[in-house]
Write a structure and sequence with these properties.
The chain has one domain: Rossmann fold. 23% of the residues lie in helices and 45% in strands. The radius of gyration is 14 Å and the shape is globular.
Length: 102
Amino acid sequence: MTDDFVTSYDLIFANAVFLHFTPEELRKVLKKTYANLIENGILAFSVKHGDGEEWTNEKVGNPRYFCYWKADIIQLLLASTGYELVSVLEDQKFMMITARRK
């Protein structure tokens, strides 16, 4: 979150990364990725489907933060940071989102 990008990108892919950010942190990251994508560049990422947030020791034995998202809320966040939604694919656990820089 604090490192600068060194160039512009056609595609930024973040699988199972953004689900560990608070809503405020995710907004900052979306603005930062938007600024570092070329025109019509793609951002592809996944978040956990649901509502709320939690800390859990599940799987790795150390505390990890998770933020859960509803499709309409993540779409509003993307729009507010300049992105155009391309697709949202959902299963019972995850949302896989593709968005484009306008």
